[in-house]
Design brief:
The protein is built from five helices and five strands; from the N terminus they run H-E-E-E-E-H-H-E-H-H. The longest helix has 39 residues. It has 203 residues and is an alpha+beta fold.
Length: 203
C-alpha cells in the first residue's frame, strides 16, 4: 500500500512538473529589460514583447538570427516535454493502481522504474538548459552596460520549479526498493502459511 502511495505521489509531482515545463517553454518573460520607469521589454523563446501599460508582441521571424542559448533552450525544452510525455505513458502502465500487466508484478515494477528514470532525465535536461540560459544572461549583464542589459524573468523560476518537481516525481516512481519490500513481505507470509500446514497434518 505504501509503495502504491509513493508511486501515485511521484506521478502527480511529475505531472505538475510537466505542466510547469510546458508553461515555462511558452512564457514570454525569459528575460526582461527596463527602459525608463514604464517601458518594459520581454523576450521569450518564441516571441518578444515591449510597451508601457499595453505591450505588443512579435514572433521571432528567423531561427538563424536567434542567439545560440535561445536555440539550445528551444530544442532542449521541447525534448524534455517529449520525454516527459513518453514517461507519462510508460509510468501509467507500470503503476500498481492501474490494471495494466496484471499478474506480472516484476515486469510492472520495472516499467514504473523505467518511467521514473525517464522523468528524472527530463527534469535534469530542464534544469541544465535553464541554468545555462541564466548563466548567459548574467554574463551579458556583467559585460555590458547595466541600463541596457537584460535580467532573467519569471519563466526561469517556473522552469526550475518544473524541473525539480519532475526529478522528484521520477525518483518516487523509480523507487524499486519500496515495491520489492511489499512483494517480499507477501512472499514470506505465503511461505510461512505453506510451511505451517504440514505440521498441522502430523498433529
Amino acid at each position: 500500500m505504501a509503495s502504491s502511495g509513493l508511486q501515485l505521489l511521484g506521478f502527480l509531482l511529475s505531472l505538475v512538473g510537466l505542466a510547469a515545463t510546458v508553461a515555462a517553454t511558452f512564457m514570454v518573460e525569459w528575460k526582461k529589460q527596463s527602459q525608463g520607469k514604464a517601458h518594459r521589454i520581454y523576450e521569450g523563446l518564441w516571441m518578444s514583447c515591449s510597451g508601457n501599460e499595453r505591450t505588443t508582441c512579435e514572433f521571432h521571424e528567423s531561427l538563424l538570427k536567434l542567439p545560440t542559448e535561445v536555440q539550445a533552450a528551444r530544442a532542449v525544452m521541447l525534448l524534455s516535454i517529449f520525454l516527459s510525455a513518453l514517461a507519462l505513458m510508460v509510468s501509467t502502465v507500470g503503476m500498481k493502481c492501474t490494471r495494466f500487466m496484471d499478474g506480472k508484478s516484476e515486469s510492472k515494477s520495472t516499467t514504473a522504474m523505467i518511467g521514473g528514470i525517464m522523468f528524472i532525465i527530463s527534469g535534469l535536461l530542464t534544469l541544465i538548459i535553464t541554468s545555462i540560459y541564466v548563466k548567459m544572461i548574467v554574463k551579458n549583464f556583467n559585460e555590458s552596460h547595466r541600463l541596457q542589459s537584460f535580467e532573467f524573468g519569471k519563466a526561469v523560476f517556473v522552469s526550475w520549479a518544473g524541473g525539480l518537481l519532475t526529478v522528484a516525481g521520477g525518483a518516487f516512481l523509480s523507487c524499486r526498493r519500496c515495491s520489492r519490500s511489499s512483494s517480499s513481505e507477501s512472499i514470506s507470509s505465503n511461505h510461512l502459511i505453506s510451511t505451517s500446514h504440514p505440521k498441522s497434518d502430523y498433529v
